[in-house]
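Table 4 source record.
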Amino acid sequence: MKKEDWEQVRDIFIEGINTGNATFETKAPTWEEWDSGHFSVSRLVAREGNDVIGWAALSPISTREAHSGVGEVSIYISERSIGKGIGTKLMEELINSSEMNGFWTLQTNIFPENETSIKLHKKFGFSEVGVRKRLGKLNGVWRDVVLLERRSSVVGDD
């Protein structure tokens, strides 16, 4: 993913916001806000021709050095590309890229209603840690999230 991709990446993020089941965010950030909140590595886009049809990235879960190899997964697919295997391709590449960049754990928080995303993550070895009850409010409604994580078998095995 490059800065030049941001407009299309942002549009896909807005599609996710509009579902009400993808994020607690209610508006898309600026490029600068998004860029500062995500690792500079393991930023991916899927393309169909010149069009970005999906994206994935990692953000830090903490500023502590002990957590430097833990990344929180964001993966979004354009509405017109759902069901085409784009999520699978992005997840495969995200895992490979994360391991090449020293990440030993990937985690994510997903609304329980987002069954497709939970299924995708479990397909790639993410396991359910638990349900975080009423973690936050979205549009005035308390929402639970399912916490999933995946431990690398090649990084951090010492």
